[in-house]
Design goal:
single chain; mainly beta; seven-stranded antiparallel sheet; two-stranded antiparallel sheet; 62% strand
Length: 136
Amino acid sequence: MNTVSADYRTFEAVIAKDFKYAGLNAGVTNTKAQLDGGYQIMWVPQWQCNAGVTVHLPLKIDIGVNYIYTEKRPEDNFNLYWYDEMNDLQLIIKWQATTRSTFMFEVKNLLDERHYYHDRYPMPGRSFTAGYMFRG
């Protein structure tokens, strides 16, 4: 029987503050994911960070920009090959039409970067989402 042991620990810190005209948020995640021998577990980045700002405009319109960074990740459990680091920029626009209804428009991967998450599976390029939320 082939058994492999691993050490997996995660630390995450997040801060968010909302002001009258703007909101700020930031976070960092550190993951120690190691196999016997000190190899990093494949697909798991050691560092991920994000930061964002949201501007509150009149008429209950919010426009936000978020940046997400993911450090390079090993493709295999022997750490011979690595996926490139990833940078993602997102745009989010929300309009609270009434106290119970909100319209939303979001653009992910705003810069249309090409990157792979794992096994050479390409992540989507720029994508658009529109939605409506009703609170009953």
